[in-house]
Structures are given as C-alpha cells and as structure tokens.
Amino acid sequence: xxxxxxxxxxxxxxxxxxxxxxxxxxxxxxxxxxxxxxxxxxxxxxxxxxxxxxxxxxxxxxxxxxxxxxxxxxxxxxxxxxxxxxxxxxxxxxxxxxxxxxxxxxxxxxxxxxxxxxxxxxxxxxxxxxxxxxxxxxxxxxxxxxxxxxxxxxxxxxxxxxxxxxxxxxxxxxxxxxxxxxxxxxxxxxxxxxxxxxxxxxxxxxxxxxxxxxxxxxxxxxxxxxxxxxxxxxxxxxxxxxxxxxxxxxxxxxxxxxxxxxxxxxxxxxxxxxxxxxxxxxxxxxxxxxxxxxxxxxxxxxxxxxxxxxxxxxxxxxxxxxxxxxxxxxxxxxxxxxxxxxxxxxxx
Length: 348
Fold this sequence. Notes:
Elements: H1 3-10, H2 15-20, E1 42-47, H3 54-66, E2 70-73, H4 85-95, E3 102-104, H5 119-125, E4 133-135, E5 139-144, E6 148-152, E7 157-159, E8 162-164, H6 176-190, E9 195-199, H7 216-224, E10 229-232, E11 238-241, E12 243-244, E13 264-266, E14 270-272, E15 278-282, E16 302-306, E17 316-322, E18 326-333, E19 342-346
Parallel strand pairs: 1-2, 2-3, 6-9, 9-10, 10-15, 14-19
Antiparallel strand pairs: 1-17, 4-5, 5-6, 7-8, 11-15, 11-16, 12-13, 17-18, 18-19
C-alpha cells in the first residue's frame, strides 16, 4: 500500500478540522468524531487534462477511492465539445462524489475559443465550496486555515473577453493580474500561512511538447517569491522538477529553454521549505499522453518525467499530503504501469 493510500485508508482529517483545529463534520453537516490523524493535515488530489474516456473515468474513480479532502482540477476538463459541462460534472459526481470539493481552474479548452465548454458553466455545476476569494474558476485563492493557501490563476487565457497576462505592462509596471498574484502571496506570508501552492493550467519549463506558454515574467515571479509548489497540466505528461531558485549566486534568473546548474538548490527527493520552488506537471488525468524528450534543453531541471514514450507510463494524479512538518507529493496511478514518483518539502 502506498503512503498516500495508507493515509486515505486511515480517514484523513477533514478540511473543516484542518481549518479550525476542531472536529470533522459528518456528511449531513453535523459534527463528526475526532479524526484519527491530528488537526492541521490535509490531503489534496490534483490533475488536469481529463476527458470522458475510460482512462479519465479510472483517474476520477481512483480519486474517489482515495477520498482526499479536496481536488484541484487543473483545466482541460471534458474534451467533449460545446455544452459538455454537465457530462463532466455528472462524471465527477458518480466517481469522486459531490461531497468532496472539486475546485476548478480554466484550461485552454474552457476559455472563450476553447470549444469544449466554458469555465463559468463548469463552475456552476462544480461550484466553489471552500470560500474562494476572487473570481472562481479564473483567478482566486482559498485558505485551509493557516496551513496552506492555494492560489489558482489563468495565464495566457481569454475568459469572457479578458486576456490574463501576469507580467509587466507597456510602462513596465505589473499588470493587474500580476499585482493580484503578488499581493495574494505576500498576504499569505503576512498572515502566517505555512505553505503556498499555485495552480494553473499551462506550464512553463517542460520536457514535453510545449514551450513556456505562461511567459518568463510569471515564471520568474513565482521563483523569486519562493512559492513552495506550482501545479500545472496542459502537457499531457507527469513531470517533477528539482527545487530551483533565483536570483542566487551564479544564477541571476532561471531562463526558459536552457539549463543552468547554479539555479538548482535541491535535486533528490527531499527539499527544504523556503530554499526554492518545485514544479509539477500533472497533465495525466485521462486524455492521450504526450511524449517526453530527454534531450530537451530544460531536462536538467527535472528529477522525474513520464509520457507516451516512457516505459511503464500510466494515467493518474498528484496527491499532496500537507502538514505543518512537510508537504509531500506522490504520483498515484489509475491505470496499469510501473511509473512512480514521490518527494517531500520539509518545513524549516
């Protein structure tokens, strides 16, 4: 049994308990019994690029069996054409269940020109249940007490006519999107929140098929702010970076499409909180996998990668187990194969 499966089988503390330090809640909203794991721990399932085909059903079934406290849907949800929002929401309900918060962010298939439903319609049938601050489905954050802040953004997407760009404007000042992101990070730190996780659909560095669609400025801002973990989909692969940081001695910036070993601060399976940022691509929710390219210029930044041309490839999701002591991430498979990955970020 994997460590994540063991946690799930033990009945991890509910979000309500993690936020309040009190008892969990029953399914009818009534007070539940004290959880078997101490208050202040939360389990999160995260993936993007699902669809409605059997691999996606398998992944959503696996998430339902794991019974996390919440799910992060990292965009590109149905792949089933206009008006397919209810189909996807019904699938989530029949697998994960409607009692588990399924928090969404738009992918390019749900933006104005995406053609597979609109994010606002997905958000109506899978609504926010965690007190989102901002525009749910597009740009928002929610907190799990002081344990973690999850910041969800939509770089390089046009939603309801608004293009979201997290970089400088023509005068060199931060755009409103970037300003909102930076303020959300700073506010979390000022509020004493222990972990900061950013989720978005499109990736930056990758050994998969895509270039940095979110642009260098956003990528650099997340690193400079030392966000603990960045979760993305889009590239239909699983990838996990080393812990990287800049500016630092020998590395003024982590520049896309090249590798600088001076930008790496940790490269094993155990990272240190505050030392840098880790990036995970979890675009393996169910649609067809893309290949990975070990000769990619950015390959030196990655510890693990898996795609269509990888022996033992399989679909699945990233499972986060977060406590005040550590943030652990494990790949949890939903289809046959042999690929595995696990790492942790240890609190200071």
